[in-house]
Amino acid sequence: MSSIGSKVVLGLSCAITIGIVSYVHLKQQSDREKMHEGVIKDVERQQRRKIENLYMIEKQNELTKQLKKGLNEA
């Protein structure tokens, strides 16, 4: 009788161990994917800022030209 109880306990502990190991593996994989997505978003954000900065520099250059043109005409 105790042999059946031992087998049940062994089976349960094996099942629980497999479940825990599987959960940890899936959680690590999910965390890695989220971190990778964060890196991609950061690169996209940097590119957008670069484009915005270039646009602002162009506008400033145009305004500077207009101002110099207006000062030379006056």
How would you describe this structure to a colleague?
- This protein is mostly helical and 74 residues long.
- Helix content is 97%, strand content 0%.
- The chain is built from one helix and no strands.
- It is rod-shaped and about 105 Å long.
- 0% of the residues are buried.
Which percent range describes the beta-strand content?
A: under 5%
Mean pLDDT score, rounded?
94
Structural class: mainly alpha
Proportion of helical residues: over 70%
H/E element order: H
Main sheet summary:
none
Number of H/I helices: 1
Cα-to-Cα separation, first versus last residue: 109 Å
Rg, alpha carbons:
32 Å
Question: Which descriptor suits the 3D outline?
Answer: rod-shaped
Query: How many strand elements?
Result: 0
Give a short synopsis of this structure.
The protein has 74 residues and is an all-alpha fold.
